[in-house]
């Protein structure tokens, strides 16, 4: 096919050269006019998929996490073929929001979803996704938040601005770009959007109802079944690029909820010296291999505060591409501290991938405050004094 395209371009080379020389006063420093639609450029094109954009740093294809502020912290979005690990907050109050934002962004952009859980039916998770917030409503929400803020003179002694001279974090809607949306947590996504979207659910209690309990490669049966399920979806629906005749390519968004819980058959949260200490790390190793060769992106929430063995946490971090931790103020001394009364917790950027390199990048911004307002979950580039 490549040879045919090359021959076609060469046949018309004389005519195109004559047309180019017939134009007067045209130099290589002048901007070329827009090409007519349908014209073959004769060169390689980037994969054009709804809800994606190339990274300005390395050209890697990116998808939005569903939270524009988090996209900005991660260098523009989540790279396709990578894993985003979200360390759950202590009472699992705010981490499900990031999980649902990621899935809701997929539905809005027409991506295929794969939702896996051991404690909640994926169909119920989809019914609880937040509704997209219109630009006008979003602007009104941000305007109200600005009006309700106290004068800066009252909070100058409480909050330190780390980046006063650097560009401020994006806090409002961007109407010119459709990459990343804002969502209203007080409303649910329309049922019509869920019914017209394509998604696959993996509910472990239903999958384990069969008599098949073969344990292979030191993996628990739950992890093994989930890997087979993900692999089948990737290969059968052509997300690995094995079906080049497919007219329109799409992104597979994979969401795995509370990985590592005993419900998965894993005991990493039960004792420090567990029997299946390597099962979780092997699962992540194989999963990342599947993602690297497919048009897919994965978000995993994990209760790392329950894992007693620090070596397991270190392995899980190394096997993940991006790691974000949520620290809630609920039940801590900071909940009653007046310095933190305007916020609900901190978000820590543990690890950011440096793609096409041997080491991972470290974000300059490590501790950021977040708060859950009436409609929006926001992240602010403010560092609170401890």
Automatic annotation (TrEMBL):
GO terms for biological process: tRNA wobble uridine modification. Pathway: tRNA modification; 5-methoxycarbonylmethyl-2-thiouridine-tRNA biosynthesis. Keywords: Cytoplasm, Nucleus, tRNA processing. InterPro entries: Elongator_complex_protein_4, P-loop_NTPase. GO terms for cellular component: cytoplasm; elongator holoenzyme complex; transcription elongation factor complex. The keyword tRNA processing applies. Its main location: cytoplasm. Gene3D superfamilies: P-loop containing nucleotide triphosphate hydrolases. The keyword Cytoplasm applies. It is found in: Cytoplasm; Nucleus. Belongs to the ELP4 family. CDD domains: Elp4. Component of the elongator complex which consists of ELP1, ELP2, ELP3, ELP4, ELP5 and ELP6. Residues 22-45 are annotated as: Disordered. This is Elongator complex protein 4. Component of the elongator complex which is required for multiple tRNA modifications, including mcm5U (5-methoxycarbonylmethyl uridine), mcm5s2U (5-methoxycarbonylmethyl-2-thiouridine), and ncm5U (5-carbamoylmethyl uridine). The elongator complex catalyzes the formation of carboxymethyluridine in the wobble base at position 34 in tRNAs. It comes from the Eukaryota.
